[in-house]
Amino acid sequence: MLSWINIAIGLALLVWGVWYVAAHITLAEIGRALALADPFFIGLALAIFILTLLAKAWRWQLQFAPRIAQPPFAAAFWALMLGQFVNTAVSFMRLGDLARVYALFQQTGISKMESLGTLVLEKTLDLLMLALTLVLILPFVIVPDFIAEQGVILGLAALLVFAILYLVAYQTYWVLRLVEVLVRSLPARLNGRLLQFATSGLAGLAAMRSKKTLLGLLARSVLIAALSVLMPYTLFYAFHLPFGLSEAVLINLGVSVAAAVPVPTPAKIGIFEFAVVFVMRQFGYTDEAVALSYALVFHLLILLPQIVLGVIAAWRTDWRWSKTAVLSKELRQTPPP
User: Fold this and answer.
1) Which sign does the torsion angle of CA 238, 224, 301, 316 carry?
2) Residue 40 pLDDT > 80, yes or no?
3) What angle do CA 302, 303, 308 make, to 5 degrees?
4) Which residues contact 33 (CB under 8 A, 6 or more apart)?
5) If we measure between CA atoms, which residue out of 289, 211, 286, 242 comes closest to residue 35?
6) What is the C-alpha separation between 159 and 167, in angstroms, rounded?
7) pTM above 0.90?
8) Residue 216 above 70 pLDDT?
9) Which end of the chain is more exposed for a tag (fewer CB within 10 A), N or C?
């Protein structure tokens, strides 16, 4: 039922988007806006996005501790590219994280549950940085109240989760003891499996036990957040838009929210563009042809590397849909303690 609802919502949004564009913007206007775009800044924005992907792989590599157990950078990078490629192809199913876990396991033998444990920390750090950038610009720009309120709530929630993960990482022994008590009454086979999953999952938080490693993760997260804002900021120059860093932060926030919306349009086509144009309208910008052209190029610069590098990653890791489906089924059939 949920899948059909997602499909219906996605199709409705796509039809509405096509109608809106046809009614308000002509192809000639979009063509003129694209023709006036500066290719140098478009290329620079593409380079920034590729640097962002490299920084994400660099951070993920650091999350595996101790250092002797860290995967090679190449293995982490190609696993990450495969995950982003899968999420682009079937965005509403969010199978990319499972594909990434499978690819890293195939290349390095690192436990799948340990890899999933690192992803919990990774998503928390991303939310924390996203909320932090929003809070930093609030004194310098007027934003709708609902965005400010949701940003503060998001930041507090991310900070709380980060604190909990930090405590769990330092109290692994007691957490495992608690899990043992909770699963004690279960059948022996299921009991052992859950304990194994809990142990491997907690291993994914081991990097937080080292203050030096934790500072390194925070520093790399700040770098990723800065690059994520720098990309839309650079594209402002490509389309001669009168915006600055504050507007780039809000556009990055809008794009991040759009990426989390569970609709079945491949690669968030339509949803991404709507989010960018919507945020621009909050700035009082009324040239919809330029705004849509900016959004289309922005989206294309993200999709092209993900598709090209994702195809290479799928070839390098010999990935198949069936492998991700098996891992997904295995995790679903194992109930939480």
Assistant:
1) positive
2) yes
3) 115
4) 239, 287, 289, 290, 292, 293, 294
5) 289
6) 12
7) no
8) yes
9) N
